[in-house]
Design a protein that fits this description.
Length: 336
């Protein structure tokens, strides 16, 4: 009976994509569920992941444009229907995708008459246009539209200061407010239900993107970013001042007692990552470089195997062995 209750309580939540569609090139939709969760967990996770999706997922934008022979944003080129300001606003709306960091350059060199769209932008191989039909300008006469573009990858919404970084409209260089926001909207809802003697929850998550990232990729990136935010707390160590021990001495995780089955322990160990074990930074870095990611991976190493890990050292190995003994794990070579 006790074992059954423990197995229920440690059941791992599963993420499922229940719907995915592209309504247009610039509107993608995904619907996901995460369950089972304990009462209150769905709201905690939903609120946190929504904030990260909306503000911490990277996007790619045009951040500056240099228009030949133009000095003022509100100038008008004779033979072009749009003002320079309108052209800049159209460039701002272009949705791009790039896997490369740093500044990239693009170009528009078109002789009219012609309707200029995103398809006419010449880009490096690392940058891709999501919707090539996006409108830029309408050239009505036999004149040339010559624009150099600066493309960057970032997060959030950045309002450009024309007086910053020596960008000067007198040189024909115009900063463009950058919306590095591929995720357009996020909704979450919670469904509660009884499971045995406890209330459990299902988290429903809806994500809309501009096509720069599919919702599933956006959710993955947001999840990794959210985990990264908490790593300093997991790795934090308090200096031994005035007899105060380090946090790692007091935060040894409470694992299930010995009456839990071996299979159940294995599931738990597979889900527990090294950065959750509060080892010192030195030990964590050495294990990570050795491709030891989970407690399950670590339990497969003997003392001799650990001693062969570069830069780990005998004292660090003793600390690892003591930790494993405290939670009831015998390394290979010590098992009967």
């Amino acid at each position: 009976m006790i074992q059954d209750e423990i197995l229920v309580s440690i059941k791992t939540p599963q993420l499922k994509c229940v719907e995915s569609r592209a309504d247009s090139k610039r509107l993608h939709y995904g619907r996901f569920t995460l369950s089972p969760l304990r009462k209150g967990q769905a709201n905690t996770i939903g609120s946190a992941i929504r904030r990260v999706l909306l503000g911490e997922v990277e996007g790619t934008c045009i951040t500056h444009a240099k228009i030949k022979n133009i000095k003022n944003e509100y100038s008008v080129l004779i033979g072009i229907e749009e003002s320079i300001h309108e052209i800049l606003m159209n460039l701002k709306e272009i949705v791009l995708r790039s896997d490369a960091y740093g500044i990239r350059e693009g170009y528009i060199y078109i002789v009219g008459p012609k309707k200029v769209t995103a398809q006419d932008i010449i880009l490096p191989p690392s940058v891709r246009i999501i919707d090539t039909t996006q409108h830029i300008a309408n050239i009505k006469k036999s004149i040339t539209l010559d624009i150099s573009l600066q493309i960057e990858k970032g997060r959030g919404y950045i309002t450009q200061n024309p007086n910053y970084n020596n960008y000067n409209s007198q040189d024909g260089i115009f900063p463009i407010d950058a919306a590095f926001i591929p995720v357009q909207n996020v909704n979450y809802s919670i469904h509660s239900y009884w499971s045995g003697n406890e209330i459990q929850e299902i988290l429903f998550l809806e994500i809309w993107t501009n096509g720069g990232l599919p919702p599933k990729e956006a959710l993955y990136e947001a999840s990794r970013n959210l985990i990264d935010f908490f790593l300093p707390f997991l790795r934090a160590e308090e200096e031994n001042i005035n007899g105060i021990n380090s946090l790692s001495d007091n935060l040894t995780p409470s694992l299930p007692p010995s009456h839990i089955s071996t299979d159940t322990k294995r599931i738990i160990f597979d889900q527990m990552y090294i950065d959750q074990l509060n080892f010192s930074t030195r030990i964590y870095n050495c294990l990570k470089k050795a491709n030891i990611k989970t407690l399950s991976d670590l339990s497969n190493y003997s003392r001799e195997d650990l001693m062969r890990i570069k830069h780990l050292g005998e004292q660090s190995v003793k600390e690892i062995l003591e930790f494993l003994r405290n939670i009831g794990i015998d390394l290979p070579g010590n098992r009967v």
